[in-house]
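User: Second chain of the day. Same drill as before.
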Amino acid sequence: MRNSTRGTVDPFIVMDVMEAARQAEDAGRHIIHMEVGQPGTPAPAAARDALARAMSDDALGYTVALGLPALRKRIAKLYGDWYNVDLDPARVVVTPGSSGGFILAFSALFDAGDTIVLGAPGYPSYRQIMKAMNIAPLEVETRAENRLQLVPADLAGLSYQGAMVASPANPSGTMLDRDALSALIDTVQGQGASFLSDEIYHGIEYDRPAVTALEISEDVCVINSFSKYFSMTGWRAGWLVLPEENLRQVERLAQNMFICAPHASQVAALAAMDAGEELEANMAVYRANRALMLEGLPKAGFDRIAPPDGAFYVYADVSHLTDDSRAFAREILDEAGVAVTPGLDFDPARGGGTLRFSYARSTADIAEGLERLTRFMRARGFVE
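Assistant: Same format as last time:
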């Protein structure tokens, strides 16, 4: 049977790294996981308890396509609590993870052949989903002096129908402040294009809070998820916030593409949103891990980094050490027992000289991983 041309997308390299790490573990090795952006903590206890009760008491069937009304209302309340934004729950759409949100947003807002601007480095699945939908990703190389974020000057002279940014970003963890985000939104909307804001790492911030695009404009599409701050990666629950005029289009698409987000996950997500004490305990771990990474990575020879404002990644320039980050990451896995992600996932043009380190796991694992990395780099003669 033939393959479609639009289905010919690149692999998600971090998943290949995960598989190689799994094989090493199956062979009896102890691997420190710094490759995947998955919290080392489970879903909050309140979420798991709520699901257990629902499984005993209720039939978990289809929900309406836009999601449980109580969950949409609670998500809208979050915008008031976190950002002082008065959000109508009717504008919230519950999705099967942020990935389902991307598919719905791209389907509703863009036609085949349209172009969406992305900053590089950036989350690789953006461009792969777009390619599979016959939408053209236009990747613009961001610069270190702009902390690897797009700025309006990067868009000058380009033709596009949309632009997407993430703040905090994956892989860098850098954020846009209100003025910088506002300038980008104004630039994109000034071209008559749609602005999409990936806010999946909101809540995981360190020195200052993240800014939602909804503080600046109602005419934006916001994508978020319960995966990161709420520690619910495998539950596949996320949400969109859309302008009112786009809702019916998205609803019809959701009805046909997904029917609804998983009912069980929606029940758990609703309870997770009120698990503040447990979620803040997770943040204490991330803060401790970030401090360890910012101190330990330079000592291990990875000293060309953009200090992360949020998320749980450090993106390192290793072009002085290698031009093949994939092979280098494999050597680190094989020799040091630490799984890290090659930058080729995030920046096909320059990623041969970068690595991403995740610090989402336990503090003990992060400390052990840094020790192993230091020994590896010392054996290679990169550090004394």
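The chain has two domains: 13-43+277-377, 45-273.

User: Great, on to the next one.
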